Amino acid sequence: xxxxxxxxxxxxxxxxxxxxxxxxxxxxxxxxxxxxxxxxxxxxxxxxxxxxxxxxxxxxxxxxxxxxxxxxxxxxxxxxxxxxxxxxxxxxxxxxxxxxxxxxxxxxxxxxxxxxxxxxxxxxxxxxxxxxxxxxxxxxxxxxxxxxxxxxxxxxxxxxxxxxxxxxxxxxxxxxxxxxxxxxx
Length: 185
Prior knowledge:
Blueprint: H1 3-9, H2 15-27, E1 41-50, E2 56-62, E3 67-69, E4 71-74, H3 81-93, E5 99-100, E6 107-113, E7 116-118, E8 121-123, E9 126-136, E10 150-157, H4 161-164, H5 168-184
Parallel strand pairs: 1-9
Antiparallel strand pairs: 1-2, 1-4, 2-3, 2-10, 5-9, 6-9, 7-8
């Protein structure tokens, strides 16, 4: 099933997802939307990585946002966003043993990205058209920091995420939804 069908088949759980789903489908028709050449908006994928007991989430301390956050990144031309999310989780945390709990989309969101510097170059504010998947990984794997993107990697108890992340919108609109979904799986 291609990405358009996956998004069309996704059943939103709230108004935010309903509105964001419509935007994602609209943006699918735009040129270069799977690359950063589209300076207004482009597709990204995130990995919500849980331990087998579903009590912890693997998160990184994101250098740009100065907050504990989920892992993920740009599609960079790839349309298989499940593969993008898995690749990004491995790159950003060092985990190797990871598998999708489901190949179905777990969450949809349009995320605003403030202007920032990356590798010494200014990046203007833009939108991330994000698709999230839930993965599982054992906790005992060796973790490492990817210094150009994060300055920490750790398993965080789900009840403690609201105390670790400084991004209220993410906590209220995304992380709380994903915590609920991971417990239902």
